[in-house]
Write a structure and sequence with these properties.
Blueprint: H1 8-24, E1 29-34, H2 41-54, E2 58-64, H3 78-86, E3 92-96, H4 98-101, H5 105-119, E4 124-129, H6 134-146, H7 149-160, H8 165-176, H9 190-204, E5 210-215, H10 233-241, H11 255-267, H12 277-286, H13 300-309, H14 316-323, H15 330-341, E6 353-358, H16 363-372, E7 377-378, H17 384-387, H18 390-414, E8 427-428
Parallel strand pairs: 1-2, 1-4, 2-3, 4-5, 6-7, 6-8
Antiparallel strand pairs: 3-6
Helix pairs in contact: 3-11, 5-9, 6-9, 7-8, 14-15
């Protein structure tokens, strides 16, 4: 009954016991990289499964902001998607800077892993994959990371034969490691490819974070069909774009996420790539004479192709279709154009972690991050100029500009008031 004692000695005893208990428990923290565009049942499953499998105390999400890896704007703004995550199992949501969020799988992974690694608290990096076998994915990642000479020579030989890079790489892998022949289809699935890049990034940093993969359930990443329970995010986005009755989506999303989406769409129209067409055309026309190869992901060859094709510009997505080729996918083109549109020329190193939202119950996690993190933690955007310098500040300001651009297009499309990024409050639950 000492716990209920009002004596000084009893009070001291209780505090001492709690302190000892906290020190004896090693905090387990899952890290998940996500877009949640929008949050659906598959995401909820991953959060829950990873938490149970790793006996995690907390889950941190590094989430793309208002622009996605496919080079397109987010269907819903980052704060709405943050709330979706927090209401369905996440404890803390951080923003992945746009330069990484709208980059190739390699740099998307590098930026995300760097943020997790520098937090100093992440114990597990959790990701979904079609393969579901961490040993197979790790073996492939090791080969791609170390680049043994026989593998590299096979890759070069295959490229000289006219194979596209993905096909050349797959064949080079099998030629170097015939034991992986049963897993030859691993590199044909997007989540496997991204998972391999996460593993490579962990290797490159000699990180102590342990990788963990959850087998993807439900519809394929590219599946555009609406299933009964586990459809893809792209199927949901296309259903919204087509103006379908959204009530059908209630079965595809957790109840709270569905409510947030429908509420947002009731007073904010969703944004799509073609909403940025006029801005892109203007940008391309004003810089036509100097070319575009100063921007991230735009080579001189692509710059020339853009200039030669510009007279046929009729919209963002149709222009991407015109520019794509055997060796350059629609997605790669779209990312490059988005970097140009957002005036992104340099891939700055990870220099800060910006908080989009957290659960109040994650106080102990935030305290530990502040103690261990090697990067400034930005909870209030207006504080960034005081906390950041050099490239870190330049990167942050660039992200603010990207968010302001997104908000400008949203405001014009919906006819609703413009809200400055500095006045937006992080999500607290």
């Amino acid at each position: 009954m000492l716990f209920f004692s009002h004596s000084l000695s009893g009070f001291v005893f209780v505090i001492t016991y709690i302190s000892f208990h906290e020190r004896s428990h090693i905090m387990k923290v899952n890290g998940i990289v996500a877009e949640y565009n929008p949050f659906h049942n598959g995401h909820a499953y991953q959060l829950q499964h990873a938490k149970e499998a790793n006996d995690a105390d907390y889950t941190i999400i590094v989430m793309s902001g208002n622009f996605m890896q496919r080079g397109a704007p987010a269907l819903l703004d980052k704060f709405t998607r943050t709330k979706m995550a927090l209401e369905n199992g996440a404890d803390l949501v951080l923003e992945l800077p746009t330069r990484y969020a709208a980059s190739s799988a390699e740099f998307f992974a590098k930026g995300s892993v760097a943020l997790f690694d520098k937090l100093g608290v992440t114990t597990n990096l959790c990701f979904g994959s079609e393969c579901g076998n961490i040993e197979v994915l790790s073996r492939i990642a090791e080969i791609f990371y170390t680049e043994p000479e026989p593998y590299v020579e096979s890759l070069r030989c295959n490229m000289r034969k006219g194979m596209s890079f993905p096909i050349a790489r797959t064949w080079a892998l099998l030629q170097y490691a015939p034991s992986l022949s049963d897993d030859k289809d691993v590199l044909s699935s997007p989540n496997n490819i991204l998972g391999i890049e996460y593993l490579k990034a962990l290797m490159s940093r000699n990180s102590k974070i342990s990788p963990f993969t959850t087998t993807r359930v439900g519809a394929d990443y590219h599946d555009k069909r609406l299933g009964t329970n586990q459809c893809s995010a792209i199927a949901i986005r296309q259903s919204v774009a087509a103006g379908h009755d959204l009530s059908y989506l209630a079965a595809q999303m957790p109840e709270s996420a569905y409510a947030l989406m429908t509420d947002s769409l009731s007073h904010k129209k969703p944004l799509f790539a073609d909403d940025f067409s006029a801005a892109l055309q203007y940008k391309l026309l004003t810089e036509y004479s100097v070319g575009y190869d100063k921007y991230q992901d735009i080579s001189s060859d692509l710059s020339d192709r853009i200039r030669n094709t510009l007279p046929s510009f009729a919209g963002y997505t149709s222009f991407c279709d015109l520019l794509k080729s055997k060796d350059m996918t629609y997605t790669r083109i779209s990312r490059a154009l988005m970097h140009l549109l957002l005036n992104q020329k340099t891939l700055y190193p990870a220099g800060y972690n910006r908080v989009l939202g957290f659960r109040k119950s994650a106080g102990a996690l935030l305290k530990e991050i502040r103690r261990r993190s090697s990067l400034p933690l930005i909870a209030k955007a207006a504080d960034a100029p005081r906390l950041l310098t050099g490239d870190a500040l330049a990167a942050f300001e660039s992200d603010i500009q990207a968010s302001l651009f997104y908000e400008t297009v949203r405001s014009h499309k919906t006819g609703t008031p413009f809200v400055h990024e500095y006045t937006k409050k992080l999500v607290l639950l």
